[in-house]
Amino acid sequence: MLSYLLVSTLTLTAPVPPATPVPIIFDTDMDTDVDDVGALAVLHALMDRGEAQLLAVIHSAPAPDGPVCVQAVNAWYGRENLPVGWTDWPTVETSPVYALYRQARRHIRDTGADYVPAVAEMYRAAKGGKTPAVQDGVRLYRKTLAAADDGSVVICAVGMLTALAGLLESGPDDISPLSGRDLVARKVKRLVTMATSGFPEGHQTFNWHCDLPSAAKVLNGWPVALAVMPHGESILTGGRLVREGDPENPCVRAYDIYVKTPAKARSSWDLLTALYAVRGAAPFFRDKTGYRLALDGRTGTIQWREAPASPHIFVEQTAKDEAIAEALEALLLHVPASRQ
Length: 340
What we know:
The chain has 340 residues and is of the alpha/beta class. It is built from 13 helices and 14 strands. The strands form three sheets. The protein has a nine-stranded mixed beta sheet, with helices on both faces. A three-stranded antiparallel beta sheet has the order 7-13-12. The protein has a two-stranded antiparallel ribbon with strand order 9-10. Helix 2 packs parallel to helix 12. It starts with a helix and ends in an 8-residue tail after the last helix.
């Protein structure tokens, strides 16, 4: 009986990889929280397992060192040449739209939790001061989608939806004769986005609220399926990574700087979103369907309205926090084959 239970547990937390890895574009605001780093690490671990194919990373936050921090994590997993995109925020210091973001940035600096420049400098030092070039985020979205199979790509967006709004508004160009909206309609299978939203109504507290106009454009006009992951606050991860991981791992460095508690564990909003984007609902979640999401671009108010044919999904957690945390920690502690 013991051996049977052990096999059952392993099957629950480490499913058999799919025949075809899930193509993923990861859109992150790696700057104001460290769970973005954890989510990228989870995606790399799932890629090593044959479950995911990470196509590109888009950095959607006004942090100059953010894309370099992304590259540091990619390099640790042996994928230094993975395309990385950036997003231009010319009015971030003045526009009232970004007031919440500016407040969060001040808090990060004041508390000494600003891991992004530290990890970026660690990476630059290892590369002799040089870093690979990054691309415009909207163009990278268009290039990546244009090259993908129809209806295949899952976009995992764990921060602001600024680059996605730019994608939807983009027109035909030298990359594709299709508009951004038509590219999404043809190439994207699903958008999975993280937001601490209530159901059937509530108020988004951070991610979407940091750029509400863009979030409203994306969520209210997204042409294919989308899923919202609201969970993760009570699921704490990263502690084992800091205690047991390689100190040269940029993910270890990021969690160690950001998390000020002795346990070095942080909420796992973005990690859950990445896990769901690749594996879907089973065995930790359930898809709640039959509703359509509406976001007020002025107030941030959220409503889920009954709509039987809607492709929108509100993700419900069904497993215990401890079981999910254990599965995530195992992925965070994954050692790339090149480093074994």
